[in-house]
Amino acid sequence: MSTDILSGMRIVEGSAFVAAPSGGMHLALLGADVIRFDPIGGGIDYTRWPIAPDGSSLYWTALNKGKRSIQVDLRSEQGRELLTSLIGAPGDDGGMFLTNFPARGWLAYDELRKARADLLMVAIRGNPDGSTAVDYTVNAAVGYPAVTGPASTTDPVNHVLPAWDVICGQQAALGLLAAERHRRATGEGQLVSLALADTALSTVANLGHIAEAQVLGQQRQRLGNDLYGAFGRDFATSDGERIIIVAISAKQWKGMVAATGIGDQIVELETRLDVDFVNEGQRFEHRAELFAMVEAFTLSRPLSQVAQALDDHGCCWGRYRDFLGLVADDERCSTANPMFDKVDQTGVGRVLSAGSPLDFSARARSTVPTAPLLGQHTDEILADVLGLSAGEIGTLHDRGIVA
Q: Do β-strands 10-14 and 190-195 pair in parallel, antiparallel, or remain unpaired?
């Protein structure tokens, strides 16, 4: 495991897609024993794209690092009883279940807690009322596609990052750890419900967008790549590269002005417009004139010279890359970054893999774990968690209950 901060904690995960698997993965990367169960042959996301040449899902292996895997016939009564026993297995650091499967029938909290009264269960659903939603349908509803994309378009523009899934997974892990702390203090188990839509709505509210609509009564306009409310945009260099320069703080603004050599032009523009560009709101309002000055600087120089000038003055900037460029050119995405290791992932090959982004001073980082093969730990889990004998495990295999 990447670090043993959560060593000894056992969590059973029944999941698909992104939110629940990512939540379980982050707990596993911190040392928790996360046992993922799947139907025999794999679940709905087991072969999701992108796919390695041999057919292995790069998506599935990336989201399930550090977990143990058990395959069970979920349609059989004995298979469900087996998983109920696994979820409710005794132990001070067990009795925790993370899922985005429908929490009904045998997976209802009241049913599962019959095996263990202090069970902790985090149940992720789409909408607060239990109806179906995924990241992309939630994103469509909360307003961002209406302000994403070129200013010239009136059509909604989706983003390709499943941001709400990613945040929801973090919230699920946080919720489970908070419930576990409560159980340590009180002995009480509980159901923690988390709606994907609420994850998005809380973020939209916390960033002020809901108040903006209610208080100001206006729709924010599309800005293309312009940064709202401050100075920031993409700029081209003379050798065809593109960078983003951002100046939010006064220090960043002064550094950018000095790096680009536009100080005299800024003073002239401030005098003519009777403004003070120390105020980021005024920088935003007059961004067109300011962008033109900065672009004249970047377009007349290759990336190397622009980068040197920006770095010399402590500017906040970044280079645009695609995924291939990220892997090839960004030192942060390499083993120079202690978060990364090259791991030999069965079915994928040797690949750069990320551990936890959390770096604890009390624990040294160790190697990044691989994802399990489907069902790799079935016998091990049945023996060490449920205490089944070799004969009992063999019978389950013979009957097709496990694989």
A: unpaired
Rounded to the nearest integer, the mean pLDDT of the chain is 96
Percentage of residues of the chain with pLDDT beyond 90? 98
Whether residues 309 and 195 share a domain: the answer is no
Residues 315 and 342 reside in one and the same domain: no
> For residue 371, which amino acid is it?
A
Of 319, 341, 359, the domain-final residue:
319
Stretch (H or E) spanning 272: helix 263-273
The C-alpha atoms of residue 32 and residue 370 are separated, in whole angstroms, by 14
Is the pLDDT score of 2 beyond 50? no
389 pLDDT higher than 90? yes
Give the integer Cα–Cα distance in Å for 314 and 250.
12
pLDDT value of position 326: 97
Q: State residue 256 phi and psi, 5-degree precision.
A: -65, -40
Shared domain for 78 and 25, answered yes or no, is: yes
Helix, strand, coil percentages for the chain (3-state, nearest 5): 40, 15, 45
Of 33, 38, 73, 165, which is the active-site residue? 165
User: What is the pLDDT, as a whole number, of residue 356?
Assistant: 95
- Contact between residue 127 and residue 197 where contact means Cβ atoms under 8 Å apart: yes
Give the torsion through C-alpha atoms of 122, 123, 125, 128, to 10 deg: -80
pLDDT digits (tens, 9 = 90+) for 142-188: 999 999 999 999 999 999 999 999 999 999 999 999 999 999 999 99
Q: What is the extent of the structural domain holding 184?
A: 10-204+333-398
Confidence of residue 4 (pLDDT cuts 50, 70, 90): confident
Domains identified in the chain, total number:
2
- 93 a catalytic residue: no
